[in-house]
């Protein structure tokens, strides 16, 4: 299930905006060079009676402290503000290079391992979520940092906020990068597909490799990747090697387009950067030098090569053709993006989240357009050559007529498959914005036959994984499968070509090969839509009613049970079910039923206390957690809620539909003795008794 976290790049900004909890930037920082002595395992600099306030200096942000003078150890501290948080954490975007975090004198977090001299090995550049106790307000937070890198300190965001809000911020920060990396992968797929269709395929191979390197760099630097697997050093290797490889493929692309003008200059630049990547891998893997030290050297080297390539492109710009000028213009824009990003990364200007990926995306897209235009010109030239060849072959002897016929059939096959491919890409582009798997499936059922026109196609199956397993026998039907995260690969759509008897065996083989490619493309697209749907289901808010959903309730129940048991305070739980809701839906329609659910949810939100937690549990069933509420409090609230709902008239499209009633089951704990962890099951049994007792009533679970 953790794979779903990585697919969160497909979640909409509307879901991410659900994080409305309070959060605050940490301010009023102080720093102190060197490393604290330790007494009984506790740092002296955190002890109020032993520290000297004169040794601590104020700093606006814990980055670029003055007067470093070769020092590799530093301490930062700040006082935590008083804000209302349920699960408080401190979020830090990045630390150079390793750190320990103390709350007063208590060690609460460690990244990397410190030796007896206060030093340690490089461990990568992840983000950090540092958990805090409930009584954090007003206490001092200390950071013990070691770095032999050019930078030392805390980078990016430094916030105090809810854990859930921190995770949502991570997803929000990673949204565009993950989408762009997915688009880079798509461009690579297109490039490699076209390279397989051409004789001289260097153009598309270089473009595909550049796109893969750009995608790898984005994934390696994406905060969301750390949610999938906590491997900071591996993540940094992915980002670094991809980043270091980008100039290799840029130089190869420029060498392809400017082979005449550049001679071997671009090729030598590519070879130099390739040697740098190999040297980086060898030295880091054998422990001779850690990866962080290669970044500033690479940036300096890359700036030099960028300047050389820019100078060369500007010098020869006037003698280039239109295609070459477009490629050089795109490269120039990308180079400017790179230079700005390096200026920000090395602290010459204040840090901002600069969209370097967009520069690479623009470069890749222009290369795609130019390459496709170039490819189209080649195809047109081939077409004209085929016509000329047919004219000449027609003048030859009858012995060559069979050869001419075979060549014509081959050309027809190529034209047909090209038409199929263009129509397939059009269909896939229309599928991408689909909001649900069902919507996408309906579109395929309606439009798939157009992809294979003039061949006759019948889509014979479209279901919700009802009967078909991956190993089921479907005779001559083709299957479009999706990757379901719970069930694995599942057949979603089946189709068949009605009549290929008039086609030759070679044509049937070509068509079948294309069908399998089309199935792969559609399966990947549908799987992405399915993952997006699953991710929406995993969100904490019910889209229909605005209440928290079952997943949120499951987490909240465990949390409230622990809090109630810790503080020995009462806890009550209500399960509410709308009576005869199926008949209401059947009678007035699902739209009216949805509106009725929203009305009930609105009444529940207005009725219960701010500390109570009403959630939609599923269908027409709701649950309410009431912390610090005794049984009588819950019973009074439930009875009043019954009256309010029974008195509320349901109006839909200016038509009164009558009223609804609910049945309620209550389970409560008075704060004494052992907490009943079957609180939910007891309330459900009480609800069942309420249903059996005639509905529109409240039943209390037995103690």
Summarize the structure.
Helix content is 51%, strand content 18%.
Q: Could you please describe the fold and organization of this structure?
A:
With 703 residues, the chain is of the alpha+beta class. The chain has four domains: 24-167, Sandwich (Jelly Rolls); 169-373, Rhopdopsin 7-helix transmembrane proteins (Up-down Bundle), CATH 1.20.1070; 396-538, no CATH class; 550-700, Reverse transcriptase/Diguanylate cyclase domain (Alpha-Beta Plaits, 2-Layer Sandwich), CATH 3.30.70.270. The protein has 19 helices and 22 strands. Strands 5-2-6-11-8-9 form a six-stranded antiparallel beta sheet, with no helix packed on it. The longest helix is centred in the middle third of the chain and has 39 residues, at 356-394. The protein is flat and about 105 Å long.
N-to-C CA distance: 37 Å
Q: What level of helicity do the residues show?
A: 40-55%
Q: Please give the radius of gyration in angstroms.
A: 32 Å
Q: Which shape, going by the Cα principal axes?
A: flat
CATH-derived topology of the largest domain? Rhopdopsin 7-helix transmembrane proteins
Please state how the strands of the largest beta sheet are arranged side by side. Answer: 5-2-6-11-8-9
As a percent range, the share of strand residues is 15-25%
* Number of continuous helical runs: 19
> Which blocks of ≥5 consecutive residues have pLDDT under 50?
1-20, 464-475
List the topology elements.
Blueprint: H1 3-6, H2 13-16, E1 24-25, E2 29-33, E3 38-39, E4 42-43, E5 57-59, E6 73-79, E7 88-96, E8 98-103, E9 106-111, E10 128-131, E11 140-146, E12 153-162, H3 163-197, H4 202-221, H5 225-228, H6 232-257, H7 259-262, H8 265-285, H9 294-315, H10 322-345, H11 356-394, H12 401-431, H13 437-451, E13 457-462, E14 478-484, E15 488-497, H14 505-538, H15 550-567, E16 571-578, H16 581-588, H17 590-607, E17 613-618, E18 621-627, H18 631-647, E19 649-652, E20 655-659, E21 662-669, H19 679-692, E22 698-700
Parallel strand pairs: 21-22
Antiparallel strand pairs: 1-12, 2-5, 2-6, 3-4, 6-11, 7-10, 7-12, 8-9, 8-11, 13-15, 14-15, 16-18, 16-21, 17-18, 19-20
Helix pairs in contact: 3-4, 3-11, 4-6, 4-11, 6-8, 6-9, 8-9, 9-10, 10-11, 11-12, 12-13, 12-14, 16-17, 17-18
């Amino acid at each position: 299930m953790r794979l779903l976290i990585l697919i969160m790049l497909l979640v909409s900004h509307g879901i991410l905006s659900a994080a409305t909890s309070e959060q605050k930037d940490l301010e009023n920082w102080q720093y102190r060079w060197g490393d604290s002595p330790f007494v009984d395992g506790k740092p002296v600099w955190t002890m109020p009676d032993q520290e000297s306030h004169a040794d601590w200096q104020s700093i606006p942000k814990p980055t670029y402290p003055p007067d470093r003078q070769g020092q590799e150890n530093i301490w930062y501290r700040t006082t935590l503000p008083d804000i209302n948080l349920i699960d408080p954490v401190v979020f830090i975007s990045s630390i150079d290079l390793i750190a320990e975090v103390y709350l007063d004198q208590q060690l609460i977090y460690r990244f990397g391992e410190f030796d007896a001299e206060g030093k340690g090995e490089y461990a990568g550049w992840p983000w950090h979520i540092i958990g805090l106790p409930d009584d954090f307000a007003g206490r001092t937070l200390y950071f013990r940092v070691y770095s032999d890198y050019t930078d030392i300190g805390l980078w990016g965001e430094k916030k105090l906020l809810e854990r859930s809000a921190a995770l949502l911020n991570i997803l929000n920060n990673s949204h565009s990068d993950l989408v762009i990396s997915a688009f880079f992968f798509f461009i690579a797929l297109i490039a490699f597909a076209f390279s397989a269709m051409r004789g001289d395929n260097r153009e598309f191979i270089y473009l595909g490799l550049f796109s893969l390197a750009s995608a790898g760099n984005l994934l390696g630097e994406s905060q969301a990747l750390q949610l999938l697997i906590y491997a900071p050093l591996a993540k940094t290797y992915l980002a670094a090697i991809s980043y270091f490889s980008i100039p290799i493929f840029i130089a190869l692309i420029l060498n392809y387009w400017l082979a005449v003008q550049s001679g071997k200059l671009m090729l030598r630049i590519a070879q130099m950067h390739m040697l740098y990547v190999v040297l980086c891998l060898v030295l880091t893997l054998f422990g001779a030098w850690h990866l962080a030290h290669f970044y500033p050297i690479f940036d300096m080297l890359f700036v030099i090569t960028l300047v050389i390539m820019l100078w060369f492109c500007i010098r020869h710009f006037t003698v280039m053709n239109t295609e070459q000028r477009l490629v050089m213009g795109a490269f120039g824009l990308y180079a400017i993006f790179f230079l700005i990003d390096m200026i920000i990364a090395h602290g010459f200007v204040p840090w901002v989240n600069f969209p370097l990926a967009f520069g690479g995306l623009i470069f890749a897209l222009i290369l795609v357009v130019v390459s496709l235009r170039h490819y189209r010109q080649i195809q047109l030239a081939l077409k004209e050559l085929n016509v000329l060849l047919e004219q000449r072959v027609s003048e030859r002897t009858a012995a060559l007529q069979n050869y001419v016929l075979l060549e014509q059939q081959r050309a027809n096959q190529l034209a047909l498959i090209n038409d199929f491919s263009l129509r397939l890409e059009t269909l896939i582009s229309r599928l991408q914005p689909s909001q649900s798997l069902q919507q996408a499936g309906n579109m395929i059922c309606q439009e798939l036959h157009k992809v294979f026109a003039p061949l006759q196609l019948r889509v014979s199956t479209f279901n919700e994984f009802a009967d078909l397993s991956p190993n089921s026998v479907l005779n001559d039907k083709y299957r479009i499968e999706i990757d379901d995260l719970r069930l694995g690969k599942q057949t979603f759509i089946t189709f068949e070509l009605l009549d290929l008897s008039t086609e030759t065996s070679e044509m049937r083989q070509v068509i079948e090969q294309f069908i399998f490619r089309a199935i792969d493309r559609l399966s990947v697209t549908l799987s992405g839509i399915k993952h997006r749907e699953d991710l929406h289901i995993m969100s904490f808010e019910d889209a229909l009613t605005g209440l928290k959903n079952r997943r949120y309730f499951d987490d909240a129940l465990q949390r409230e049970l622990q809090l109630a048991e810790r503080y020995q305070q009462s806890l009550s739980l209500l399960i509410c079910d709308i009576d005869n809701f199926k008949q209401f839906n059947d009678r007035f329609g699902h739209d009216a039923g949805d509106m009725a659910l929203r009305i009930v949810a609105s009444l529940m939100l207005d009725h219960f206390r701010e500390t109570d937690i009403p959630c939609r549990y599923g269908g027409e069933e709701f649950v309410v957690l009431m912390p610090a509420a005794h049984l009588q409090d819950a019973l009074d609230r439930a009875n009043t809620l019954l009256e309010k709902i029974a008195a509320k008239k349901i109006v839909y499209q200016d038509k009164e539909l009558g009223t609804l009633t609910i049945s309620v089951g209550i389970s409560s704990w008075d704060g004494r003795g052992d907490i009943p962890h079957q609180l939910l099951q007891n309330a459900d049994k009480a609800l069942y008794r309420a249903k059996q007792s005639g509905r529109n009533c409240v039943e209390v679970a037995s103690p």
